[in-house]
Every structure is written in structure tokens, then in C-alpha cells.
Design a protein that fits this description.
The chain has 389 residues and is of the alpha/beta class. It has 2 domains: 4-57 and 356-386, Urease, subunit C, domain 1; 59-347, Metal-dependent hydrolases (TIM Barrel), CATH 3.20.20. It is built from 10 helices and 21 strands. Strands 1, 2, 3, 4, 5, 19, 20 and 21 form an 8-stranded mixed sheet that branches. Strands 6-9-10-11-12-13-14-15 form an 8-stranded parallel sheet. The chain has a 3-stranded antiparallel sheet with strand order 16-17-18, with no helix packed on it.
Length: 389
């Protein structure tokens, strides 16, 4: 019998059928080949004793601007390639094995260049899923940390140019659906395989529902840069309650959204809430001044803000978000992990490839320390990080 490449034994495996205690997981050729209770594991070239720790699928981040000092650099292809590599390396060290790299609002020329740069980076950058354009088609009154001068309405010509530049790496775009031309843009983008998320918006529930009807299936960083829920205007989040095809991001860094509001999201949007980092290039770096696109920001106590006080992304990771919601929101580890694995995989249409422990899935794993920090990380069956405590 052919030996497996890898067997991880003695773990509490978080599977679609629940937590399997004292199990093993085997991988061959980058895919999960078998699983079962300890004592029945196959021979393998590499055997790892998980020590009774939790084993989950690798984390998936659909909204990440950077980290480890890197990210997309407007108008600079070489710096962007190096920045994407730095961001992937940093977030992999925190358990994120698959990542969508995000932009901020930029000029038309720099937007197309960023899309082309990410397309070019796909072959060499393991773990890179594609690009998320957070802007430039946002409402200026909800710009947040986006350069107001870069915001504009979507035009058919620019949408077609973006689709062409990004190619198959076009994953997601955030858009304010109340803008002129937005409905047509949503329909076009969705027809080409993009996910469209409502965000940085003043849309009411009716406008948001119309965007969902046009094909939008996401909400960017729920509760942030959008109207709140109220009795007479439920807003984008209220509209999403009645739209089961819609997935919602949340930034659980302890600053963007109150823990009680996050608990509300988990209970309302079970299995379609996604933990995201919204991390910027300074994640994992010291405090101090920095740039987000063309905007000057400042990092104090690991919190990024613009000169006007708006939050400017985050400096945290998805694994920190998991730990936060378990400790501060009374969310179970199983539910928290689903929000960072199977939920984003389903949003991306990759639910048969990533985000679950099961035969035939990609062998992306995180072995968790007891304090819910990543101990060891594998991507495609290859160990990339070991920092077990």
C-alpha cells in the first residue's frame, strides 16, 4: 500500500459533521485522502502527533489589504508583488492559508494596474485567491479611510476594463448600490464571476434588496460605513436577513464592532457570517505613521486611524478574530471556526475545495494551541509554520 505523505494523529478534528475527538487526518498530493479514529491511521512519510489539540481547516480571509509591511502599492508593480508576498507570509503565520488581497480606492489607471498586478502574481504566490476591489465605487459620505478624490460612479467602460485587467483573479468588489450605474455594473460583474458586496454606502433596505436582486451576494464589514438598523429603516443589514444567499463580513478586532453586536450577527446570520481581518500593511509592524493608498494614517496601540479619526482598516488577523469572539462574544470554537473556513469557502463558491476537513478537500490545516493561537499550519499538505507552545 502507498504511504500517505502526511498523517496528523491525536487531534480533535473540526469536521462538517461536528468535532471528532482523538482522530487522525491523512493527506497525499496536497489533498485529504482519509480520516478516522486514532488506531486506524495509515502509514505515512510524515506523522505528526497533535497532542490532543484542535485541528481545523486553514483559514480563509476574503478581505485583507496587507500585513507584515506589505500590500498593494498603487502604480508600482514590483513593490506590489513583494508586498503581496509579505502579506501572505505574515497571515500564513497566523493561520490564514488562503487570502483575497484588497485594494483601496485609487485612480482608474492605478485600479487597472493593481488588477493586472494581482493577476500576474497568481502563479508565484501560494495561497493568493485573487483581488478584492474595495472601491472606487463608494459613497463619498461613507468613505471612511478611502481617498474622497478617488471615488466615482461606475461606468460601463471602466467595469469592462477592470474585468479584462483582472481576468480570472477578479474575486470581489465592494460597491455602494445607490450610485448611478451601480445596478448595471453589478449585473455585468456577476455575469463574469465576480462577487459584489454592498458597502461604504447610504443605501436603505429597498436599494440594498435591489442590489441583491441584481446579483450582489455580500455585505462588506457589517455595521461599518453603512446605515445602522432602525425600526423604520432596517438598512443593508436588515435587507440581508431576508436574503439567504447573502454573506456578511465582520471585523472582530475589538474596535470596529461591539462584541454584543457581533453576537447578534452570529445568531442572526448563522453559517453565513465571515470573519475578516481588513488588515493593512502595518499588521504585525510597530506603531507609527503609515500610508493607506494615498492617505496618511497613524497607528497607535495597534489601532489605525486617519487624521479625522476614522478607523483605517485593522492590524489584526482572522485568527485573532476567532479568539476574540470565543472570549468576548460567547461564541463556540466550532461556530467561530466555521466563520473563518466553511462560510468564506461557500461565499467564494469553493465549498467543495476549501474550508472543510473531508476526503477530497485541499489539505490546508491549522493545529491550535490551547489558548487558541495557531501552533502549526499546513497549506496543500506542506507545513509552512510551526510555533507550538
Amino acid at each position: 500500500m502507498t504511504k500517505s505523505d502526511l498523517v496528523i494523529t491525536n487531534v480533535d478534528a473540526h469536521t462538517p459533521d461536528g468535532v471528532k475527538q482523538n482522530w487522525w487526518v491523512a493527506a497525499q498530493g496536497g489533498l485529504i485522502t482519509s480520516m478516522g479514529p486514532s488506531g486506524s491511521e495509515p502509514d505515512a512519510h510524515t506523522v505528526v502527533n497533535g497532542g490532543g489539540l484542535i485541528l481545523s481547516p486553514g483559514l480563509i480571509d476574503v478581505h485583507c489589504h496587507g500585513g507584515g509591511g506589505g500590500g498593494i502599492v498603487p502604480g508600482n508593480s514590483d513593490a506590489t508583488l513583494a508586498g503581496i508576498h509579505a502579506a501572505l507570509e505574515y497571515h500564513a503565520s497566523k493561520g490564514t492559508t488562503r487570502l483575497v488581497i484588497s485594494t483601496v480606492s485609487m485612480s482608474p489607471e492605478n485600479t487597472l494596474q493593481a488588477a493586472a498586478d494581482v493577476h500576474a502574481a497568481m502563479e508565484s504566490q501560494a495561497g493568493l485567491i485573487g483581488i478584492h476591489l474595495e472601491g472606487p465605487f463608494l459613497n463619498a459620505e461613507k468613505a471612511g479611510a478611502h481617498d474622497p478624490e478617488s471615488l466615482r460612479n461606475p461606468s460601463a467602460a471602466e467595469i469592462e476594463a477592470i474585468i479584462h485587467a483582472a481576468g480570472a483573479t477578479g474575486v470581489q468588489i465592494t460597491m455602494a448600490p445607490e450610485l448611478p450605474g451601480a445596478s448595471e455594473a453589478i449585473t455585468t460583474l456577476v455575469s463574469q464571476g465576480w462577487r459584489v458586496a454592498v458597502g461604504h454606502t447610504l443605501a436603505d433596505a429597498t436599494q440594498t434588496t435591489e442590489a441583491f436582486s441584481a446579483g450582489a451576494t455580500g455585505i462588506t464589514h457589517a455595521f461599518n460605513a453603512m446605515p445602522p438598523i432602525s425600526g423604520r429603516n432596517p438598512g443593508p443589514l436588515g435587507a440581508a436577513v431576508a436574503a439567504p444567499q447573502v454573506f456578511l463580513e465582520v471585523i472582530a478586532d475589538g474596535h470596529h464592532v461591539d462584541p454584543d453586536a457581533i453576537t447578534l450577527l452570529f445568531h442572526t446570520f448563522t453559517n453565513r457570517l465571515m470573519l475578516v481581518s481588513d488588515a493593512i500593511s502595518t499588521a504585525g509592524q510597530p506603531d507609527g505613521p503609515a500610508l493607506l493608498g494615498n492617505l496618511e494614517i497613524d497607528i497607535t496601540n495597534s489601532v489605525a486611524r486617519t487624521a479625522t479619526g476614522s478607523l483605517a482598516g485593522s492590524t489584526h488577523t482572522v485568527s485573532q478574530g476567532i479568539k476574540n469572539v470565543i472570549e468576548s462574544c460567547s461564541i463556540s470554537p466550532e461556530q467561530a471556526l466555521k466563520a473563518a473556513t466553511s462560510a468564506p469557502a461557500r461565499y467564494l463558491g469553493e465549498q467543495d475545495r476549501w474550508g472543510s476537513l473531508g476526503t477530497g478537500f485541499v489539505a490546508d490545516f491549522v493545529l491550535w494551541n490551547k489558548d487558541f493561537t495557531p501552533a502549526r499550519v499546513w497549506r496543500d499538505g506542506q507545513e509552512i509554520i510551526s510555533q507550538q507552545s
